[in-house]
Amino acid sequence: MLFVFFTVLLYVGASSAARCCLNNTYSATMIMNVARQPPGAVEPYITDQTLDLDFDYDRKIQKMVISGYNLLHPEYTFQTTIYNDYKHSKVYTLFNGTCTMADLAEAQIAPCIPDDFTTNGMPVTIGTGSNTKMLTFYSGVQNGASMTFSFDEHCTPITFSSMGDLPDGTKFLYQATFANIGPLRSADAFDLPDACKHAVAASGN
Fold first, then answer.
1. Residues of the chain with confidence (pLDDT) below 70
2. Each residue of 31-40: b (16+ CB within 10 Å) or e?
3. FRET pair for 183, CA 20 to 30 Å: which of 63, 93, 157, 205?
4. What is the structure's pLDDT at 111?
């Protein structure tokens, strides 16, 4: 379910009257803390993650490379690559050299802050001197999750947080800081690896 939230999370570039809108193509890196606790779990699953994202709105595709470790059990590390193919409504997940395919039920979301998200009103000033930034916060509900974004005066995303419940009852909390955002990393960023070209459907799909 993680990929659902990042379809609305990167808003850069031009702005309309009060809303920031994303560029049609971009790459971004985020530093994240993620907590999840399934029903009946004794302790939450808390991870420190780096998320590298490539996005192309016109081609209806998104790629995420998520790597990190479990904060409670740091010996457990992981890396997962996810391709969201909105054109064909498929999601490919590559983990430990094995790629699985599943139906992608979520539609691609419009590339602007939703109209029903509210702002904090006057921007908040953080930092001093040349490091001063004016942040505007937007809050609302998307895909059943409560979300808050902050953007600077140039419509560059700074932070993101989300919390809620997944359909299976798992509670989650995401907190992210944007470390970098810019043009697409490479022209072949969305090329499926060989393992995914012959992917089998995930169990239960």
1. 1-18, 110-111, 200-205
2. ebbbebbeee
3. 93
4. 67
- Beta-bridge partners for 147: 140, 162
Write out pLDDT tens, residues 6-27.
444 444 333 333 578 778 888 9
The percent of residues in the chain predicted with pLDDT above 70, rounded, is: 87
* Two structure tokens written together for 37: 């606790």
CB 47 within 8 A of CB 70: yes
Write out the H or E segment, with its range, that includes residue 5: helix 2-6
What is the domain partition of the chain in residue ranges? 2-201
The pLDDT value recorded for residue 110 is 67
pTM of the model: 0.81
DSSP secondary structure letter of residue 4: H
**How many CB atoms within 10 Å of residue 153?**
12
80-87: Cβ within 8 A, 24+ apart? 81/193, 82/2, 82/3, 83/190, 83/192, 83/196, 84/3, 84/7, 85/60, 85/61, 86/60, 86/61, 86/62, 87/59, 87/60, 87/61
Question: How many Å apart are CA 16 and CA 197, to the nearest integer?
Answer: 40
What topology is assigned to 2-201 in CATH?
A: outer membrane lipoprotein receptor (LolB), chain A (2.50.20)
Q: DSSP state, 73? A: S
Beta bridge pairs of residue 37: 171
